[in-house]
Structure formats: C-alpha cells, structure tokens
C-alpha cells in the first residue's frame, strides 16, 4: 500500500507476563500517549507541506470539507449539544467544557463504519476522526484514574469505554479499507490507530489484573476418590469447588473479552487468559502436594518415594477430573459467550489437553519402571483414575460441535487417555503374571520350624485378598490383555484359581522337607486352614473362588487330619489293645503288660516333648485337634488302666509302670501345639 494511505490497526505486542508495577505501567502509557499524539501531529504537518500538486490539492480539498463540516455542526440544533444551540465543532466537543461529545461523535462514526460494511457510503472528516479519537482517549484517561474502573455511571449504565474501544477498532478497520493512493484520512487514521493501541494496552493491563484478582478463592479441597460429576450432575446440585472469581469479576471479564475478541485481538488475549488459568491450575495442584517430575526422575525413584508420589498424583489427577476441568469449563463458558463461545471452547480444549497430557506423562514413567509385585495396587489405582476420566471427557465432547478443532483436541485427548489406560492395564497384567512366576520359583529348602504357616502362604493370601478388592478392574485388565476364557468366564477368577493351585503345589513340596510325616501333615493343616480362613474372611475373594474351592479345601484339611492321627496316635493306641498276646486263656501276661506300659509311657513322653514344640496358630484348629485326640486316647487309656493297673503289686511296682493317670494323659494332650518344649509335672497315680 502507498505510504500515504491509511495504515491498518497495529496490534500491541506487549502481551507477555507483566514485569512492571502498576505505576510503571501508567508511566509507560503516558509516554505512549504523548508519542501517539506526536505521531499524529507529525502526520498532519507532512500533509500540509503539499510537496506535490495533487497532494496539495487534496489537502486544500480536505480543509474545505472540514470547514463545511464545521458549518454543518454549527447549524445543528441542541440535540447534539444538549439543546444549547451552539452547534459546530464547539458543540461536538461539548460546548464550553471543551471536551468532545462522545455520544454525538459516535453517531457519525457509526454511519461511516456502516458505509464500509455494505451500507450507504458516508464520509467523515479528519476533524471528526481527531475529535472522536480524543473523546475515546479521554474516556480511557478517566477510567485509568477511577478507583473502580468498571463501575456503572449515575444512571446505572456501564461505562461507555468498552463500547468506544469496540467502535474505534471498527473505525480503524474501516479506514484501512480506504482506496490506495488516498491521503484524505492519513492523519486521522494515524491518530485513531495510536489511540486504539493505547486502548489495547490499557485493556491488557486491566484484563491481566482481573485474571490475577486477589479476591479469587485460593483454597483447594481434597476430592480424592469422590464421585465423578458430569456437567448435568453438577447442575443438579452436586459437590462443586468454589468458583475461581466472584460474579462481578466474571461479568467484567466477559465484557472485556467481548470487546477484545470483537476488535480482532483474540490471539493475544486468549493466550493471556490461557496462561493465567494454566498458572492457577498448576498452583491448585501444588496445593495438593503435586509437583512436576521428569520421566528420568520417576524411573530413578526408590519404591518408597514412588509409592508416595503415585498417591499424590492420584489425588491431584482426581481433583483435576472431578473439579478442575469442570470449573475451567464453566469459567470459559461464562466469559466467552454468544458469538464468541467458540473462543472459550478453544481455550478450554487447549487448557485441558495441556494439563492432562503433562499428568499422563507421569503414568508413562511409572510403566517404564521395573515390574515388582508391590506396585500392582498403585498401578491399578492409576488405571482406575484414568478409566474414570473418559466419561468426563465424553461429557465435555457432547457439548462440542461434531466438527471443529476444539472437538478434535478433546477427541485426541480422549484417545491419549485410552492409550495410557491400556499401557497401565498391560503393566498390571504383567506384574500379576510375574507374581505367579515368583510362586513357582520359590523353592526354599529350609522347613518352617514347628510346621507353622509358611511366610509364602501369608504373603500370597494377603496379596490375593488385596487383589480381589480390584476384581472388576482386574477382570477388565485380563480380558483386555492376553487372557481369554471360553464361554465368557471371568479371566481374573481363572487367574486366581491358577495361583491357588500353584501355591498348593508349592506347599506340598515344602511339606516333604519334614522328616516326620506327622509334622508334614501339621504343616499342611496349618497352611490349608490359613488359606481357607483368609478366603472365607474376604467376601470378594470367596466370591471369586467360589464354594466349590472351599469345599475341596475342607476335604483336604480333613485328610491331613486323618493322616496325622494315623501317623501319631494309631501307634500309641496299639500299646493299649488286647490283641491276644496280652491275655492268654484269661490270664494276663505280666511281662507283656509291663512292656506295654513302658512303650506307652515312652510314646507319650516323646509326643509331649516333640509335639509340644509344634505350632498350630489357629486356635480353632488347635482346639479341634486336641479334642479329637483326647476323644480317642483318653477313654482308651482309662479303660486300659481299669483292666490292668491292679495286676501290679501296690507300691513301687505300680509306680514303676503306671506313671500316668488318665488326667495326666489329657493334660499332655492339652499342652500340644503350643510351641513350648518344656516338660510338665506329672501326677502319680
């Protein structure tokens, strides 16, 4: 375009974080204003030089038109000058006050703008442009000095500043459409552009100040594991966070945003809004204890540190999904309304994607760490948090047009969420399979003292109990990752049964480490009972394994019990039987009887010494064992004593062979399985 033509509006390039004070900003604006006025006046002087005939002629013509415009102003009645009838330029500038009449000038400016927008062409003089620019500049100056820049006037109406800024922006755009080669509006255009730049700088400061409103709530509530709220649910009165700004601030931001977008400064000001809200979002996450961590740092963390970090991330992520995004969506919807709603949706889409992708990077880092069994439950917690995010994103997507970059950004975010969820699911499945492998590989050769519950049994059963609390999640994980069950069964239940079979096989192998078959059976009873009690004590685990498994386990326990009875007490009872050797033709064979008492006494002493040190930790099982033993042994011994004790001569012979009473035998039995090898004091009969 020719240098003499009207310049296009110049957008301010100062939309960067404000590092000056409010006083400094005011001083800078004053300098800008003086420079703009100087530039405008300089433009007028250059035109008046009339270096070329055409230019001089055009300038003379313009001055004539200005004189005619002044005469028209003088002929107008008091409608333009408040009924004073002063008319002319003096009326347009407010009569005796010397201040431009913004309302009157706006009528002529609007007609000029309308002419360039397809209406009937209407010309405007340079003097009118200058007066209008001065009127707008005066309105800015008033607002700069006002304590409440956005208060209503005496009639309860908003200040005319925003409407004036919108009008001067439209005027600058219309002047830019002036045919090339025309210098008629050069000086006025420079003046208008200078004031527009000042107005944009002023609005930038005010918009930024409102975004940083100190009255905005700073507290952050803990919404860990709270119920997800869709926009419809929140409309119905669900739990909400406090809005980020008071209502009056939102109203002011909305008015300013409307003016800024209308004037064509959408890129600069939406970027400012996006940065401010992203900073606020980050601050809310820091208040929850969440700090940004690089992938390298996550991979290098100890499990203790990572465990804490994951818990914090889950809390922050759930806050983001349940509260943060909904709050920001509502804010964007309230500030960018009507024809500018798409701008608000774009800001929200960018903010959501920026915040969420950074948080999802943390999960990527976690899946890159070494797979260990203890990480399963934290990985599943993260998996559930990611899974629960999809309905929220879907709710936001439902408010978007079917097409458009905003919808695309949210769709891409949803796809990324699903991809991260899949990677977490794969990681969880891998951890569980490696847990199975660790059971298979546990081939310790050192038996547990006393046949007690093996540490492996305790670890596996407690691990499975915790895993079953995630049964629906693990069912989905195994359904999605390498586990397919014919007939549509639960793949996690099948995986669980496989683990139980592995554990049972491992324990049977460990039972063979004991040289005493009785102790082997006590070991299997202890561990089998522990497994059964853990499963029955966990509704989730019991439901997964089913009653069939429990019945089979009970059958196994009864068999171990029978095996123990046979190995230990059948041999004891054999010394108390009258098998045709003890009594011959009705006569007691005293040497055989002495031998029977000796062996019985020795067997009971050995059992008390050894099995008193064995351990049965389950009190019910211990009681069941003692009762079942006493029910067989004590009556048999009592009967044996009744028949044969009198065979011995009273005194030393009786004391030598009949060392235990029936009560002594019962006491010995009651002291079994306490893990105590000390001998007991025995009463002599």
From TrEMBL:
One of its GO terms (biological process) is exocytosis. GO terms for cellular component: exocyst. Residues 80-96 have a biased composition (Gly residues). InterPro entries: Exo70, Exo70_C. Keywords: Exocytosis, Protein transport, Transport. Residues 312-671 form the Exocyst complex subunit Exo70 C-terminal domain. Belongs to the EXO70 family. Residues 1-96 are annotated as: Disordered. This is Exocyst subunit Exo70 family protein. It comes from Zizania palustris. Component of the exocyst complex. Residues 1-17 have a biased composition (Low complexity). GO terms for molecular function: phosphatidylinositol-4,5-bisphosphate binding. Pfam families: Exo70_C. The keyword Ligase does not apply. Residues 21-33 have a biased composition (Basic and acidic residues). It comes from the Eukaryota.
